[in-house]
Amino acid sequence: MNIIDIIILLCCVPAIFRGLSKGFIAQAAALVALVLGAWMSFHFSNVVVGWLEPVMDVSPTVLQAIAFTLILLAVFLALTLAGKMLEGIVKIVMLGWLNKLLGVVFALMKVILAIGLFILLFDSVTTALGINCSKTISGSVLYTPIKDFADAFFPYMKELIFNK
C-alpha cells in the first residue's frame, strides 16, 4: 500500500458518510434525474421553445437555454419527489437500514468510477507525455483494479476522449 492507495481511500470516506446520510434511493433518484433530465432537455427543448416564443421576446439562444433549464428542473424535481415518496414507503416497510447500506455501496461506486475516470485520463496523459510512473503504480494495491473496473465500465472512454 502506498500514497496512491491512501489518496483513493481518503476520497472514499466522504462517500461513505454521504451514502449513509442520503441513502440509496435519494442518490439513485438524483443520478437518474440528472441523466434523464439532460437527455429530455436535449431532445425536447425545441418543443418548449415553441411554447415560450409567443410570450417571451428574447433571442433564440436565450430561449433555448431557458427551455433546456426548465425541462431539466422539471424532470429533476419530479424524480426527486418520486424518490422521496419511495423512500417514505421504504421507511414504512422498515427497510431504512437497507436503504442506508445500499446508499453507502452506491456512493462508493460513484467515487470509484470517478477515480477510475481520472486514472484513465492520467494513464493516457502520462503515456502521451512519455512519463514513467510504473514503479509507484505497481506498488499500489487499488490502482490496477480500479483502472480495470473503469475500463470495463467505460470501454469507449479512451476513443471518446483521445480519438485512439
The portion of residues forming beta strands comes to under 5%
Radius of gyration: 21 Å
Q: State the separation between the terminal residues, measured CA to CA.
A: 32 Å
Q: How many domains, as an integer? A: 1
Give a quick rundown of the structure.
This protein is an all-alpha fold. The chain has helices at residues 3-52, 60-92, 96-129, 134-138, 143-153, 157-162.
Write the layout of secondary structure elements.
Layout: H1 3-52, H2 60-92, H3 96-129, H4 134-138, H5 143-153, H6 157-162
Helix pairs in contact: 1-2, 1-3, 3-5
Polypeptide structure, described:
- The chain has 164 residues and is an all-alpha fold.
- It has one domain.
- Helices cover 85% and strands 0% of the residues.
- The radius of gyration is 21 Å and the shape is flat.
- It starts with a helix and ends with a helix.
- The model has no long low-confidence stretch (mean pLDDT 83).
Give the tags.
0% strand; mainly alpha; flat; 6 helices; 164 residues
